[in-house]
């Protein structure tokens, strides 16, 4: 299977952005997904997780209250809605199929005025 992210771009501090991750090649509805991010010179860090049960989610401390992970099983897509973006959110964001070595290519999020 594979994952393709999109939706990154340039946004001002305090702005919003929604990332998408389209999956293919495996049974989407039974899979759990995660968003990770990696800033230059830093390790890749977990941002959010959504389990096959739509209501079960998990967030990092920095994402909680500002980011929302969701999924659309019909479209086989995972989303990450990001609000009140800060300069420290600037990174390449990756979609990951939990418990598998399946990663997307990443999408760049730049937060600058």
List keywords for this structure.
113 residues, single chain, four-stranded antiparallel sheet, mainly beta
Structural features, described:
With 113 residues, this protein is mostly beta strands. The mean pLDDT is 96. The strands form two sheets. Strands 2, 4, 5, 6, 9, 10 and 11 form a seven-stranded mixed sheet that branches. β9 and β10 form a beta hairpin.
Shape from CA axes? globular
Secondary structure tally: strands:
11
The CA-CA distance between the termini, in Å, is 37 Å
What fraction strand?
over 45%
Q: How confident is the prediction overall: mean pLDDT?
A: 96
Instruction: Count every helix, treating DSSP H or I runs of 4 or more residues as helices.
Output: 0
Helix content: under 10%
In short:
By secondary structure, this protein is mainly β. It has strands at residues 2-6, 9-11, 17-24, 33-38, 45-50, 57-59, 67-72, 77-82, 91-97, 102-103, 107-111.
